[in-house]
Amino acid sequence: MLRMLLRFVLLTAVAVAATWLAYRPGNLTLEWLGYHIELPLAVAAVLAVLTLIVLAILWSLLRRLLHTPGAVTDYFRFRRTRRGEEALSAGMIAVSAGDIAAARRQAQIAVRILPEAPLARLLQAEAASLDGDTHRVKDIYEEMLADPVTELVALRGLFEAARRGGDAAAARRYAEQALRRNAGIAWASNAMLAIQSAESDWPAVSATIEAQRKARLLDDETARKKRAVVLTAQALAAEDTEPDAALDLATRAHKLDPALVPAAVVAGRINAQDGSLRRAARILEKTWSLSPHPDIAAVYAHARSGDSPLDRLKRVRDLIRVAPGGEEGAVALAEAAIDARDWTQARQVLADYVAERPRARICALMAEIEDGEFGDKGRAREWLARAVRAPRDPVWFAHGMTSRTWLPVSRVNGELGAFQWTSPPEALTGPDEAAQEEAVPIEPPTPAETEEKAKAPDLIEARPVASDNDAPRAEAPATQTSVSEPEVEAPPPAEHKVHAGVTEPVPPPTAASAPPAAEEVPSREAIVPDKAVAGDDVGAPTIIGRQPDDPGPEPQSEARPKTGWLGRGGG
Q: Please, which residues bridge with residue 35 across strands?
């Protein structure tokens, strides 16, 4: 726009000058070296303008002629630089793609053409790192340390090489040097934070977190949560030796992050020991409403020493009124009800979590309820069998690592406050396996039973048989007795035995094959858990075969009363 305006002004000036000359005619007379030249003024002005244009063209040609060698040199230099830049681009792409040969070749071209370019040296180092030549990588980065432009990138490269090589001291030295060069370098600050956290150097960790907050590497909320983790780690370490200091640290951590479970547990536990029940309850209730956890429920229930199980059940009910807590609340209330032998309430609170695929701890609680309420060992073992393949219970989980107790630092990468209370990933189950798991309970024999059967194969293990009576039943002690041959009036009909999955007829015993009356020969009968009916008691034996030399009575029918999969009252 400005250029068009200038052109318009220039044309206007020329037009005004031409008009001015047209209205003022005259002649221009020039006498020089005996020559007399007389021209009209307008013609003289036009000739002067043409002369200036010709002179400008001649000057331009002369300048170009004088600068031709430099122009040729600049042209070839431009072509060479462009080739080096193309080699840099191709080399970086090859490094990203993992093409070692192409990366090495392009790095050699870039270094030969652009020996002073920092990117060429960096490409050479990346290609050597991709090739696994650690010594070459270290040499290149050490050369780059001498240049202030490439010092930081060289320090990072040396840090990564030292970290991969397991040289923790060298890695720390390079990170510290980078922080002295620039305190706002994120990788160096995070590396120092991880190293200090792994060494449990909590004062240094706190200083690093504050430096990161000032450098805007951490926002205020994240910095506050990390400081809470540091204070909680210090409180856990000092709880046994310095309870007062641990209480102060845990209380400060709870104020910074009320959802942090270990801080609330330590503060609640020490307050309860000091007799400050209201303060302990207030801390635990606030954290429970944000992050329900079994440890909070346990400390809340046992806050007052000497309470009876009924008193603890009442306290857990009070905690549930503050916040239901989902499954954690149901588990805490069920455990308290089981301790108080309130089987009905325990079964009711777990009813919503046993319908589909209950977790392992739900199955264990249901087994305890069946055993405690009815003395039903078979039903209890059935629930325990389900617990083997049940979804995993929540644990402290971080970066593929599980822990039953909270840890302030991840042992995988040194991240601070990485552990979260959650269910770890489990292997995917196919639809056929899942259906089989739900339809058929699997009860593996206990190690004691396997050992007893191996030592005495001729004995039959007597177990109680399920009954459809809902009254509580006592378990008959598992004994091993020798069974003699009963007297029969007629030979029993043909039986069947199971061998390698094929049912074969067994001929009835004859007098010749019967043992003498004076001897009692124990029968050799296979005992396996009855898996034909999903509702049968797992503990009841099923006789599926008999040796041909055993003239025992005709086996009883296997038809027995059926009960539900979840037991009496189960959902």
A: 32
Residue 34 is assigned to a structural domain of this protein: yes
- Give the integer Cα–Cα distance in Å for 266 and 273: 11
Q: Which two tokens stand for residue 243?
A: 């309870």
Q: Is residue 515 part of a domain?
A: no
Instruction: Compute the Cα dihedral for 303, 306, 309, 314 and give only its sign.
Output: negative
Residue 553, domain member (yes or no): no
Domain that residue 44 falls in = 12-66
**506 in Cβ contact with 525 (< 8 Å):** no
Task: Evaluate whether residue 35 is within a structural domain.
Answer: yes
Give the least confident one: 266-280, 333-347, 383-397, 532-546: 532-546
Which residues, including other chains, have CB under 8 Å from residue 462's CB and lie 6 or more apart? 476, 478, 479, 480, 481
Contact 497, 546 (CB under 8 A): yes
Confirm if 418 and 394 have CB atoms less than 8 A apart.
Answer: no
Does 1 score more than 90 pLDDT?
A: no
Given a contact cutoff of 8 angstroms between Cβ atoms, the answer to whether 260 and 287 are in contact is yes
Q: For the chain, how many structural domains are there in total?
A: 1
* Confidence band of 334 (pLDDT split at 50, 70, 90): very high
Nearest to 537 by CA among 519, 561, 516, 518: 561
Angle, CA 82 vertex, CA 78 and CA 84 arms, to 5°: 120
Higher pLDDT, 546 or 204: 204
Percent of the chain with pLDDT over 90: 46
- Based on the number of CB atoms within 10 Å of its own CB, is 514 exposed (0-12), middle (13-18) or buried (19 or more)? middle
What ranges in 132-273 are assigned the alpha helix state H? Answer: 134-144, 151-164, 168-181, 186-198, 202-214, 220-238, 243-256, 261-273
Which residues fall within 8 angstroms of residue 350, CB to CB, at 6 or more apart? 330, 331, 334, 358, 362, 365, 366, 369, 571
- Kindly tell me if the per-residue pLDDT of 533 is higher than 70: no
The residue whose two tokens read 């020798």 is 482
pTM as predicted: 0.62
N- to C-terminal Cα distance for the chain? 83
* 306 vs 267: which has the higher pLDDT: 267
Which 3 state secondary structure label does DSSP give 340?
coil
